[in-house]
Write a structure and sequence with these properties.
Elements: H1 11-31, H2 35-52, H3 62-82, H4 92-98, H5 109-123, H6 126-136, H7 141-148, H8 152-179
Helix pairs in contact: 1-2, 1-3, 2-3, 3-6, 3-7, 6-7, 6-8, 7-8
Amino acid sequence: MLDAAPPPVPPRYATVAEDYGPALGRLVRGYEADPDRQRDLLQDIHLALWRSLPTFDGRASLRTWVYRVAHNVAVTHVLKSARHRPERLLPIESFEEACSAGDAVLHTEQRDAVARLATLVRQLRPGDRQVILLYLEGFDHAEIAEMAGISPENAATKVHRIKRVLQGALARGSEDHAAR
């Protein structure tokens, strides 16, 4: 039996994978801490993009559409894995009280702060996580609203609240480290 050659990569998918690959990697790290699970999630996102690209109709920008597909896959991934893992996802209202300080090494404070931020973001509920990750990727409130299925005003409010809570949690972590 002859081995069949893999199907050629559609040019549109190749462009999407190349143009958005690094951003999709950042998005995946925002949703998943474990490297093996990150690879699985990234593969699922690419598969969803491959399958759904023929349905892209141009009503939104390609960038917006790619992020929406990616976030939908990531949210589904988080919700499925939440049933199998004891990790607790928090509503933004109770997040501030639940955050505790993290350890930081003085010579790697910035890297540790980024890692701590990523850890804090992964503790958010998927909808809040989506909003802040899109904000961190540089999307404006209208684009975030379109991808998250909320109003631009709601997107702006969520971004403001989540930033305030995360800044407070990071500041508490810095204060706790200084006290040690």
